[in-house]
Design goal:
disordered C terminus, 6-stranded parallel beta sheet, 7-stranded parallel beta sheet, globular, single chain, alpha/beta
């Protein structure tokens, strides 16, 4: 147990918060609450408040905008922190005005590679210590990394700290590869990525079209209609019917594809046929611009990055949040090392090189559109676009934009493209509905920085938002379980439904829609008595009263827009990542009891007005027609 005294400065507390009752000690349990746990006990995982313990996730959700802004401010603060007389942004500046900071995993802020859930829970613990005026913190858990961070927090606040190992299970030490091991992995990644790129060298690089109406689309070479591709037609789920407008609105299209999901031979054959037919414009691959001189430049930049890493050995203090006693270096260090030394660094430097060569070779494009998720390659693309004098560029939010998807969020103090080493941002973000527009505005992209376009990936839902009379009741209740691509999460979801069905107070007819990319053995869930559904989701939804989904599956949105009541099952170690967070007609469940309570309420009988503009759905594409024919002076008017 670590003991110290005092009361240093700390962030202001919210004294009227429902969890703000005073207590001598704050207890944080990694798993279940301790038997006879004290009142101020919080669970690290899970979303349920109970008499025995409260949930840190539930606490965060009650003030989600505060904690989201706190995380974004922490990331921004790192970039501006001064180390050895210069900001991190400056230390990572390349020789053409781009700061490599914008391509790091920390700057990306993805739940899949960044410690978002861990950090916001630590912010919650720090605020709880203030609100409750705690004189000590007890951590019951197995993480040595979390133990070290909480102990340091208590030492800086001069309060008691106690670590109690869990009653079952082992302590989990956190180790990371040595710098030498990481560098060896990077060399292997360089060889692998270069070999992949070489196999695309046969793609045509000289067929760019320019002149009036020249428009470049940058996208992933995935989600294609393969039957159409075999017949020389480019049909991508990302763009839907958009290419059919090109002749009508006089767009001369160029396509720059990357990250192909198909074998190089198949990909290059398809693109050769697309170009031979010439119906959707000129197609090429980013990897086709690989070259030996480019490889030399990549290696040189990587060696410079290695030098920067070792020159900034004392960088850890830069990761301490402003007005905080937390030291988050333990969570940030693996991302910092991977971004500067690891295979991620090679992938990023390759993107910088290839986009620079590709956009230097293209004639001036009047406008550009790219799929926007704040992935590292996007910063490389936008920087090269502006460097080589092309026109306006739009980032297309092609899917849903979720409250906790911090890739789309930026602190208000983030440097703009017009400032030195500023973030390479698009001229406008194209939003596909009111939900995306509102969420982006709440995370730092004002409405004046947005344009609107129909939801190209979701046009099959057109008409589903029409206000209709409530569906007639069914006996039994027709329940559809929509499986997730993550097999472990699908198992947890089906296990809860399996246990809930025998206890349900209403008769249920259960059906399961497997994810097309995952096999599913329903015999593992004997109480379900479920029927497998194989038809497309949007065709079968009218037959159901209630859909149970994961938080991240897009099937939840399909069901909600179809008038089906949606029950979203939250994973125990994730924030609420659902695109339906805050929407009427949606319930969030975490347990068997939650699920049965929600099922007993029956189908949704509420007003559906809130659904009307969730997506902009018009197969005539009037918004996209405007985007494809805009003049530069029109941009500020929308």
């Amino acid at each position: 147990m670590s003991v110290s005294k005092g009361d240093p400065a700390h962030p202001a507390a919210t004294s009227n918060h429902p969890d703000a009752s005073a207590g001598a000690w704050l207890t944080v349990c990694e798993a279940d609450a301790l038997p006879g746990a004290p009142p101020a006990t919080y669970l690290w995982n899970g979303h349920e408040d109970s008499d025995a313990a409260r949930s840190l996730f539930a606490y965060v959700e009650r003030d989600g905008e505060y904690f989201r802004a706190r995380y974004l401010n922490w990331i921004h603060g790192i970039s501006e922190r001064t180390v050895a007389g210069r900001s991190i942004l400056s230390h990572l500046a390349l020789n053409d005005g781009l700061s490599y900071w914008w391509l790091t995993q920390l700057s990306e802020k993805s739940q899949y590679s960044s410690p978002v859930e861990d950090v916001v829970r630590l912010f919650a613990i720090e605020r709880l210590l203030t609100e409750k005026r705690s004189e000590g913190l007890r951590y019951v858990g197995s993480s040595t990394r979390l133990t070290a961070i909480l102990q340091t927090l208590c030492e800086r606040r001069r309060i008691l700290f106690e670590h109690q190992p869990p009653s079952r299970g082992e302590v989990r030490p956190h180790s990371s590869p040595t710098a030498l091991t990481l560098c060896l992995r990077t060399v292997r990644a360089l060889i692998r990525l270069s070999w992949t790129a070489v196999r695309f060298r046969g793609a045509d690089r000289s067929g760019w079209v320019g002149g009036d109406g020249a428009t470049l689309f940058c996208d992933y070479f995935v989600n294609l209609n393969q039957e159409a591709a075999d017949n020389g037609r480019y049909r991508s789920a990302y763009w839907g019917p958009l290419p059919k407008l090109f002749d009508e609105v006089r767009v001369r299209a160029n396509w720059l594809h990357h990250n192909s999901a198909y074998p190089p031979g198949t990909s290059t054959t398809w693109v050769r046929e697309f170009n031979r037919h010439g119906t959707e414009g000129f197609h090429t691959f980013l990897d086709a611009f690989w070259s030996v001189p480019g490889l030399v430049r990549i290696v040189g930049r990587w060696l410079g990055m290695v030098g920067t890493y070792f020159r900034l050995r004392d960088v850890s203090a830069a990761f301490r949040p402003a007005q905080s006693d937390l030291d988050l270096w333990g969570f940030a260090r693996p991302l910092w090392r991977e971004s500067l030394l690891g295979p991620t660094s090679i992938a990023n430097l390759l993107a910088i090189e290839l986009f620079d060569r590709a956009l230097a070779s293209a004639p001036r494009q009047d406008r550009g559109f790219y799929l926007m998720e704040n992935a590292p390659w996007e910063a490389a693309f936008v920087h090269a676009w502006r460097k080589h004098g092309h026109g306006k560029v739009h980032g297309v939010a092609h899917s849903t934009v979720r409250f906790w998807d911090l890739r789309y969020g930026f602190d208000p103090g983030t440097r703009t493209p017009s400032q030195p080493l500023g973030r390479p941002a698009p001229d406008a973000a194209v939003v596909n509905g009111d939900s995306a527009a509102h969420t982006l505005a709440s995370m730092g992209t004002p409405r004046t920085g947005q344009a609107t376009g129909e939801a190209l990936r979701y046009l099959y839902l057109e008409g589903s938002q029409e206000i209709t009379a409530p569906r007639p009741g069914h006996d039994p209740l027709q329940l559809l379980v929509v499986a997730d691509i993550n097999a472990d999460f699908t198992h947890r979801l089906l296990t809860v439904v399996d246990h809930a069905r025998p206890m349900s107070t209403v008769p249920l007819s259960v059906h399961v829609k497997p994810h097309p990319a995952r096999a599913l053995d329903l015999s593992r869930y004997p109480s379900l008595g479920a029927t497998r559904v194989s038809d497309p989701l949007h065709l079968v939804l009218p037959n159901f009263d209630i859909a149970v989904t994961s938080a991240t599956t897009s099937g939840a949105v399909d069901a909600w827009l179809s008038g089906v009541r949606v029950l979203v099952f939250l994973d125990h170690d994730q924030l609420n990542l659902s695109p339906l967070r805050g929407c009427r007609g949606v319930s969030f469940v975490t347990s068997v009891d939650d699920l049965n309570t929600a099922l007993a309420e029956g189908p949704w009988q509420g007003d559906r007005e809130s659904q009307l503009d969730y997506f902009y759905l018009d197969s005539g594409l009037p918004r996209w027609r405007t985007l494809l024919t805009f003049r530069p002076q029109d941009l500020a008017k929308r």
